[in-house]
Amino acid sequence: xxxxxxxxxxxxxxxxxxxxxxxxxxxxxxxxxxxxxxxxxxxxxxxxxxxxxxxxxxxxxxxxxxxxxxxxxxxxxxxxxxxxxxxxxxxxxxxxxxxxxxxxxxxxxxxxxxxxxxxxxxxxxxxxxxxxxxxxxxxxxxxxxxxxxxxxxxxxxxxxxxxxxxxxxxxxxxxxxxxxxxxxxxxxxxxxxxxxxxxxxxxxxxxxxxxxxx
Length: 214
Prior knowledge:
The chain has 214 residues and is mostly beta strands. It has helices at 20-26, 125-129; strands at residues 4-5, 28-31, 34-35, 45-52, 56-70, 84-90, 98-104, 109-114, 120-122, 132-135, 142-158, 172-180, 189-191, 209-213. The strands form two sheets. Strands 1, 3, 6, 7, 8, 9, 12, 13 and 14 form a nine-stranded mixed sheet that branches. It has a five-stranded antiparallel sheet with strand order 2-4-5-11-10, with helices on one face. Strand 7 (98-104) and strand 8 form a beta hairpin. It is globular, with a radius of gyration of 16 Å.
């Protein structure tokens, strides 16, 4: 069965703070629940709802689990060390191999154009500003909190930022969705599409899955 991303034009009209229910009920829902490495067995509840308009890709993450951390408040920071959700995408054409979009639970973003884990070009301030974000927590950094927490993050990423021409969307893109929290009491490395590698590594386009436009 194809993973079809629905076209919901109303998303571009509504304020990002008010689209959560719409995305929750009208989008493609994917479960980020694959434990690829047994030594990191902790598995919080993670889903991502995916939809699009003619100009933007919309993602709504929902997370519930132990511990919460958001120490980074400036874009371009290593948010993977915090409570973090991620979207890696490989457009069908372009001068780079893939892009990574990583967000902590207050919406701070780290994103790059990449040839590999080591070879990358970071986004400009203007490109970061084009990624709209609405976190359920106030966008203010805090140290790790213990306990059980639920949180959401809604993001809208322009297709043009991903090297995709809005008026000529491809049949599909290759991508993966992740959940991690490297420097917390409960480190974990979950993915949507399985990763068959011996050690944790999200920078592996060979294991991306297919997402289709309709």
